[in-house]
Amino acid sequence: MSANFADVRAPQQDEPVDHAAQTDTAMRILVIEDDKDAADYLVKGLRESGYAVDHAGDGRDGLFLALSEPYDVMVVDRMLPGPDGLSIVESVRKSAISTPVLFLSALGEVEDRVAGLKAGGDDYLAKPFAFSELLARIEALLRRSGAVPENTFLKVGDLEMDLLARKVTRQGKRVYLHPREFRLLEYLMRHAGQVVTRTMLLENVWEYHFDPQTNVIDVHISRLRQKIDKPFDKPILQTVRGAGYKLDTAA
Predict the structure, then answer these.
(1) CA-CA to 189 of 20 to 30 Å: which in 2, 73, 199, 248?
(2) Is the model's pLDDT at 13 over the cut of 80?
């Protein structure tokens, strides 16, 4: 089911492909998804999570980008206009491109997943899916490929977290946290300097895939501030009005 390279073309000017502003450190992800709502959801969530994201809305544009641009991970829908997802990945592998591929598909039977893996995919996620699981699978692919080493020690300014010992210190003083507070702080530290939205916290810390309309986040942020900020001279946990929260030593 290889794609015909005659079908591969550069995106036309009246068919824009979304390009994130690239940075020297952001991991690059290519999303090939023809459903506009799904694509908007994916691109927005991945960019909020700190990734640089390109989006192609059909198989031809997706294959062109996959063959011509360097990416750290590709997220590919199986059912696409133009070359389908399986054909795209087969062509990418025949071109000796080893970029990890995560298939997304409403086709979730065992034989569908097997077909995706045999075509050259590295992982397969059936729709509908939780965004937190998508992120976890992308992070696993990055670690497996060596793009992101597993980090068990986090440091933001004078705040340190040892994930193996489950220990937090600031200025060398032990900070005692409850499990949920520890998980909340770990997420904030992994995204230090970035604005972390309420949606990101609900999905990644509480594993809610809806907004329960409670003040659970505010309560835990307040408790966390009491422990990592109040006893020290410089607060680092900031509220970004109308957006979310940010752990930043530059305040």
Answers:
(1) 73
(2) no
